Give the backbone structure.
Amino acid sequence: MDPLIFSILVMLAVVLLFMLPSAAVAVYAERRVSAFIQNRYGPNRVGPLGLFQPFADVIKLFFKEDIIPDKANRALYILAPMIPVATAIVTVAVIPFSEFVYITDLNIGVLFLLAVASLSVYGVTLAGWASNSKYSLLGGLRSAAQMISYELPMGVALASVILFAGSLSVVDIVGSQETWWNVFRNPIACIIFIVAAFAEANRTPFDLVEAEQELVGGFHTEYSSMKFGTFFLAEYMHVVIASMLITTFFFGGYHLPFAGYWLPEMGVIAKSVLDISVFLAKTTFWAFVFIWIRWTLPRFKFNQLMRIGWSRLLPLGIINFIVIAIILYYLG
Protein backbone atom coordinates (compact mmCIF):
# COMPACT_ATOMS: atom_id res chain seq x y z
CA MET A 1 0.00 0.00 0.00
CA ASP A 2 1.19 3.50 -0.79
CA PRO A 3 2.66 5.12 2.38
CA LEU A 4 0.62 8.31 1.86
CA ILE A 5 -2.65 6.36 1.59
CA PHE A 6 -1.69 4.30 4.65
CA SER A 7 -0.98 7.49 6.65
CA ILE A 8 -4.34 8.95 5.65
CA LEU A 9 -6.16 5.78 6.71
CA VAL A 10 -4.35 5.73 10.04
CA MET A 11 -5.21 9.40 10.55
CA LEU A 12 -8.89 8.71 9.87
CA ALA A 13 -8.83 5.80 12.31
CA VAL A 14 -7.23 7.96 15.02
CA VAL A 15 -9.77 10.73 14.48
CA LEU A 16 -12.82 8.46 14.48
CA LEU A 17 -11.71 6.12 17.26
CA PHE A 18 -9.84 8.53 19.54
CA MET A 19 -10.16 12.27 18.89
CA LEU A 20 -13.94 12.62 18.50
CA PRO A 21 -14.76 10.23 21.40
CA SER A 22 -12.12 11.94 23.57
CA ALA A 23 -13.90 15.28 23.10
CA ALA A 24 -17.20 13.71 24.21
CA VAL A 25 -15.46 12.14 27.23
CA ALA A 26 -13.86 15.51 28.08
CA VAL A 27 -17.29 17.21 28.01
CA TYR A 28 -18.69 14.56 30.35
CA ALA A 29 -15.64 14.78 32.62
CA GLU A 30 -15.90 18.57 32.74
CA ARG A 31 -19.45 18.32 34.09
CA ARG A 32 -18.76 15.55 36.57
CA VAL A 33 -15.57 17.09 37.95
CA SER A 34 -17.09 20.58 38.19
CA ALA A 35 -20.09 19.11 40.01
CA PHE A 36 -17.78 17.33 42.45
CA ILE A 37 -15.73 20.49 43.08
CA GLN A 38 -18.90 22.54 43.68
CA ASN A 39 -20.51 19.81 45.82
CA ARG A 40 -23.51 19.24 43.56
CA TYR A 41 -24.88 16.59 41.22
CA GLY A 42 -23.56 16.36 37.71
CA PRO A 43 -25.42 14.83 34.76
CA ASN A 44 -27.23 11.77 36.12
CA ARG A 45 -30.45 11.44 34.11
CA VAL A 46 -29.50 10.53 30.53
CA GLY A 47 -28.21 6.97 30.71
CA PRO A 48 -26.40 5.31 33.64
CA LEU A 49 -24.50 7.98 35.60
CA GLY A 50 -25.42 10.44 32.87
CA LEU A 51 -22.99 8.83 30.43
CA PHE A 52 -25.21 9.58 27.43
CA GLN A 53 -25.45 13.30 28.20
CA PRO A 54 -22.80 14.34 25.60
CA PHE A 55 -24.72 12.44 22.91
CA ALA A 56 -27.95 14.13 23.99
CA ASP A 57 -26.21 17.49 23.64
CA VAL A 58 -25.11 16.65 20.09
CA ILE A 59 -28.62 15.56 19.12
CA LYS A 60 -30.05 18.76 20.60
CA LEU A 61 -27.57 20.96 18.70
CA PHE A 62 -28.13 19.01 15.49
CA PHE A 63 -31.88 19.69 15.54
CA LYS A 64 -31.66 23.35 16.57
CA GLU A 65 -32.37 26.01 13.96
CA ASP A 66 -29.26 27.07 12.05
CA ILE A 67 -29.38 30.88 11.90
CA ILE A 68 -27.01 32.94 9.74
CA PRO A 69 -27.13 36.71 10.37
CA ASP A 70 -28.28 38.79 7.40
CA LYS A 71 -25.23 41.05 7.46
CA ALA A 72 -22.71 38.25 7.96
CA ASN A 73 -20.08 37.28 5.38
CA ARG A 74 -21.72 33.96 4.59
CA ALA A 75 -18.71 32.06 3.17
CA LEU A 76 -16.31 32.97 5.98
CA TYR A 77 -19.04 32.58 8.59
CA ILE A 78 -19.52 28.95 7.52
CA LEU A 79 -15.79 28.27 7.08
CA ALA A 80 -14.64 29.63 10.46
CA PRO A 81 -15.88 26.77 12.73
CA MET A 82 -14.11 24.17 10.58
CA ILE A 83 -10.62 25.64 11.03
CA PRO A 84 -10.08 24.97 14.79
CA VAL A 85 -11.31 21.38 14.41
CA ALA A 86 -9.08 20.79 11.38
CA THR A 87 -5.99 22.13 13.15
CA ALA A 88 -6.66 19.94 16.20
CA ILE A 89 -7.01 16.85 14.01
CA VAL A 90 -3.88 17.53 11.95
CA THR A 91 -1.79 18.00 15.11
CA VAL A 92 -2.20 14.31 15.97
CA ALA A 93 -0.20 13.34 12.87
CA VAL A 94 3.20 13.91 14.53
CA ILE A 95 2.44 12.83 18.11
CA PRO A 96 3.88 9.38 18.95
CA PHE A 97 1.56 7.19 21.05
CA SER A 98 4.23 4.51 21.35
CA GLU A 99 7.70 3.68 20.14
CA PHE A 100 6.04 1.91 17.23
CA VAL A 101 2.68 3.73 16.94
CA TYR A 102 2.60 7.13 15.22
CA ILE A 103 1.29 8.41 11.92
CA THR A 104 4.45 10.09 10.65
CA ASP A 105 7.86 11.12 11.94
CA LEU A 106 8.59 14.52 10.43
CA ASN A 107 12.15 15.74 10.84
CA ILE A 108 10.64 19.20 11.45
CA GLY A 109 7.80 17.98 13.66
CA VAL A 110 8.09 20.79 16.22
CA LEU A 111 7.94 23.46 13.50
CA PHE A 112 4.92 21.67 12.03
CA LEU A 113 3.14 21.77 15.40
CA LEU A 114 3.86 25.46 15.90
CA ALA A 115 2.71 26.26 12.35
CA VAL A 116 -0.55 24.32 12.74
CA ALA A 117 -1.19 25.86 16.18
CA SER A 118 -0.84 29.34 14.71
CA LEU A 119 -3.55 28.54 12.13
CA SER A 120 -6.26 27.95 14.73
CA VAL A 121 -6.37 31.66 15.54
CA TYR A 122 -7.75 32.32 12.04
CA GLY A 123 -10.89 30.35 12.76
CA VAL A 124 -11.71 32.37 15.86
CA THR A 125 -10.76 35.69 14.28
CA LEU A 126 -12.75 35.01 11.11
CA ALA A 127 -15.75 33.94 13.20
CA GLY A 128 -15.66 37.25 15.05
CA TRP A 129 -15.29 39.36 11.92
CA ALA A 130 -17.63 37.44 9.60
CA SER A 131 -20.51 37.55 12.12
CA ASN A 132 -20.72 41.35 11.79
CA SER A 133 -21.36 41.71 15.53
CA LYS A 134 -19.43 44.04 17.81
CA TYR A 135 -19.28 41.47 20.60
CA SER A 136 -18.04 38.79 18.22
CA LEU A 137 -15.51 41.18 16.69
CA LEU A 138 -14.10 42.09 20.11
CA GLY A 139 -13.86 38.40 20.98
CA GLY A 140 -12.03 37.71 17.73
CA LEU A 141 -9.57 40.57 18.26
CA ARG A 142 -8.92 39.44 21.82
CA SER A 143 -8.28 35.95 20.54
CA ALA A 144 -5.77 37.13 17.96
CA ALA A 145 -3.88 39.21 20.53
CA GLN A 146 -3.92 36.48 23.15
CA MET A 147 -2.94 33.54 20.98
CA ILE A 148 -0.17 35.39 19.15
CA SER A 149 1.19 36.67 22.48
CA TYR A 150 1.42 33.19 23.99
CA GLU A 151 2.72 31.44 20.87
CA LEU A 152 6.05 33.21 21.42
CA PRO A 153 6.71 31.92 24.98
CA MET A 154 5.54 28.48 23.85
CA GLY A 155 7.99 28.51 20.94
CA VAL A 156 10.88 29.61 23.16
CA ALA A 157 10.03 26.87 25.68
CA LEU A 158 10.08 24.28 22.91
CA ALA A 159 13.37 25.68 21.62
CA SER A 160 15.03 24.78 24.93
CA VAL A 161 13.52 21.29 24.67
CA ILE A 162 15.06 20.92 21.21
CA LEU A 163 18.49 21.67 22.70
CA PHE A 164 18.29 18.55 24.88
CA ALA A 165 17.06 16.28 22.08
CA GLY A 166 19.25 17.73 19.34
CA SER A 167 16.41 17.23 16.89
CA LEU A 168 13.18 18.84 15.67
CA SER A 169 11.51 15.42 15.41
CA VAL A 170 8.83 14.85 18.03
CA VAL A 171 9.67 11.13 18.04
CA ASP A 172 13.31 11.93 18.84
CA ILE A 173 12.28 14.36 21.60
CA VAL A 174 10.21 11.65 23.29
CA GLY A 175 13.03 9.15 22.81
CA SER A 176 15.47 11.51 24.56
CA GLN A 177 13.29 11.35 27.69
CA GLU A 178 13.56 7.59 28.24
CA THR A 179 15.67 8.09 31.36
CA TRP A 180 15.10 11.72 32.37
CA TRP A 181 11.90 13.59 31.58
CA ASN A 182 12.21 17.21 30.49
CA VAL A 183 10.17 18.35 33.48
CA PHE A 184 13.20 17.42 35.62
CA ARG A 185 15.85 18.71 33.20
CA ASN A 186 13.98 21.85 32.14
CA PRO A 187 11.33 22.77 34.75
CA ILE A 188 11.13 26.48 33.84
CA ALA A 189 10.30 25.71 30.21
CA CYS A 190 7.72 23.18 31.44
CA ILE A 191 5.91 25.82 33.50
CA ILE A 192 6.03 28.33 30.62
CA PHE A 193 4.67 25.76 28.18
CA ILE A 194 1.81 24.72 30.47
CA VAL A 195 0.72 28.33 31.04
CA ALA A 196 0.95 29.06 27.30
CA ALA A 197 -1.06 25.90 26.54
CA PHE A 198 -3.88 27.12 28.78
CA ALA A 199 -3.85 30.46 26.95
CA GLU A 200 -3.75 28.84 23.50
CA ALA A 201 -6.73 26.65 24.40
CA ASN A 202 -8.67 29.71 25.66
CA ARG A 203 -9.22 28.03 28.99
CA THR A 204 -9.64 29.64 32.40
CA PRO A 205 -7.94 31.77 33.65
CA PHE A 206 -7.25 32.86 30.05
CA ASP A 207 -10.81 32.61 28.68
CA LEU A 208 -11.21 36.33 27.97
CA VAL A 209 -11.93 35.46 24.33
CA GLU A 210 -15.46 34.39 25.30
CA ALA A 211 -15.97 36.28 28.58
CA GLU A 212 -19.75 36.16 29.04
CA GLN A 213 -19.91 39.14 31.39
CA GLU A 214 -18.22 41.44 28.87
CA LEU A 215 -18.77 39.96 25.40
CA VAL A 216 -22.05 37.99 25.76
CA GLY A 217 -20.44 34.91 24.20
CA GLY A 218 -17.36 36.26 22.50
CA PHE A 219 -16.53 35.21 18.97
CA HIS A 220 -19.36 32.63 18.76
CA THR A 221 -22.16 34.95 19.95
CA GLU A 222 -23.91 34.76 16.57
CA TYR A 223 -23.45 31.03 16.05
CA SER A 224 -26.14 28.40 16.64
CA SER A 225 -26.90 24.74 15.96
CA MET A 226 -23.99 22.56 14.84
CA LYS A 227 -21.79 25.53 13.92
CA PHE A 228 -21.75 26.44 17.61
CA GLY A 229 -21.37 22.74 18.37
CA THR A 230 -18.27 22.64 16.16
CA PHE A 231 -16.63 25.41 18.21
CA PHE A 232 -17.66 23.53 21.36
CA LEU A 233 -16.08 20.35 19.96
CA ALA A 234 -12.90 22.22 18.95
CA GLU A 235 -12.44 23.64 22.46
CA TYR A 236 -12.42 20.22 24.07
CA MET A 237 -10.32 18.72 21.30
CA HIS A 238 -7.74 21.43 21.97
CA VAL A 239 -7.82 20.55 25.68
CA VAL A 240 -7.02 16.94 24.78
CA ILE A 241 -4.34 18.00 22.27
CA ALA A 242 -2.75 20.39 24.79
CA SER A 243 -2.68 17.57 27.36
CA MET A 244 -1.01 15.31 24.79
CA LEU A 245 1.61 17.95 23.96
CA ILE A 246 2.44 18.59 27.63
CA THR A 247 2.83 14.84 28.08
CA THR A 248 4.93 14.51 24.93
CA PHE A 249 7.38 17.35 25.45
CA PHE A 250 7.87 17.39 29.21
CA PHE A 251 6.52 14.24 30.86
CA GLY A 252 8.24 11.56 28.84
CA GLY A 253 5.46 10.83 26.37
CA TYR A 254 4.86 7.09 26.54
CA HIS A 255 7.88 6.48 28.84
CA LEU A 256 7.48 5.49 32.48
CA PRO A 257 9.61 7.40 35.06
CA PHE A 258 13.31 6.59 34.68
CA ALA A 259 12.38 3.73 32.34
CA GLY A 260 15.95 3.53 31.04
CA TYR A 261 17.12 2.25 34.41
CA TRP A 262 14.65 -0.51 35.23
CA LEU A 263 12.22 -1.39 32.42
CA PRO A 264 13.12 -4.78 30.86
CA GLU A 265 13.06 -5.58 27.16
CA MET A 266 9.58 -6.41 25.84
CA GLY A 267 8.00 -7.62 22.62
CA VAL A 268 6.62 -5.16 20.09
CA ILE A 269 2.95 -5.80 20.89
CA ALA A 270 3.38 -5.81 24.68
CA LYS A 271 5.57 -2.71 24.53
CA SER A 272 3.04 -0.90 22.32
CA VAL A 273 0.14 -1.73 24.64
CA LEU A 274 2.11 -0.54 27.66
CA ASP A 275 3.28 2.64 25.92
CA ILE A 276 -0.21 3.59 24.72
CA SER A 277 -1.67 2.94 28.18
CA VAL A 278 0.97 5.12 29.83
CA PHE A 279 0.51 7.89 27.28
CA LEU A 280 -3.28 7.92 27.64
CA ALA A 281 -3.03 7.89 31.45
CA LYS A 282 -0.77 10.96 31.41
CA THR A 283 -3.02 12.71 28.88
CA THR A 284 -6.07 11.98 31.05
CA PHE A 285 -4.34 13.44 34.09
CA TRP A 286 -3.54 16.70 32.30
CA ALA A 287 -7.06 16.94 30.89
CA PHE A 288 -8.25 16.66 34.50
CA VAL A 289 -5.85 19.48 35.46
CA PHE A 290 -7.38 21.70 32.75
CA ILE A 291 -10.83 21.09 34.24
CA TRP A 292 -9.59 21.49 37.81
CA ILE A 293 -7.98 24.85 37.05
CA ARG A 294 -11.16 26.12 35.40
CA TRP A 295 -13.15 25.67 38.58
CA THR A 296 -10.38 26.89 40.89
CA LEU A 297 -8.84 30.10 39.53
CA PRO A 298 -10.59 33.37 38.62
CA ARG A 299 -10.22 34.95 35.19
CA PHE A 300 -7.37 37.41 34.59
CA LYS A 301 -8.01 40.93 33.41
CA PHE A 302 -6.86 41.56 29.84
CA ASN A 303 -3.96 43.81 30.84
CA GLN A 304 -2.79 41.13 33.29
CA LEU A 305 -3.00 38.51 30.56
CA MET A 306 -0.85 40.60 28.22
CA ARG A 307 1.64 41.45 30.98
CA ILE A 308 2.13 37.80 31.90
CA GLY A 309 2.79 36.84 28.29
CA TRP A 310 5.09 39.66 27.20
CA SER A 311 6.71 40.89 30.44
CA ARG A 312 7.04 37.63 32.36
CA LEU A 313 6.94 34.45 30.30
CA LEU A 314 8.76 35.62 27.17
CA PRO A 315 11.82 37.17 28.94
CA LEU A 316 11.96 34.22 31.34
CA GLY A 317 11.83 31.78 28.44
CA ILE A 318 14.62 33.57 26.56
CA ILE A 319 16.86 33.65 29.66
CA ASN A 320 16.15 29.97 30.30
CA PHE A 321 17.04 29.12 26.68
CA ILE A 322 20.33 31.02 26.88
CA VAL A 323 21.33 29.44 30.21
CA ILE A 324 20.55 25.91 28.98
CA ALA A 325 22.42 26.53 25.71
CA ILE A 326 25.50 27.69 27.65
CA ILE A 327 25.37 24.74 30.06
CA LEU A 328 25.00 22.18 27.26
CA TYR A 329 27.77 23.83 25.26
CA TYR A 330 30.28 23.56 28.08
CA LEU A 331 29.12 20.09 29.16
CA GLY A 332 29.12 18.83 25.57
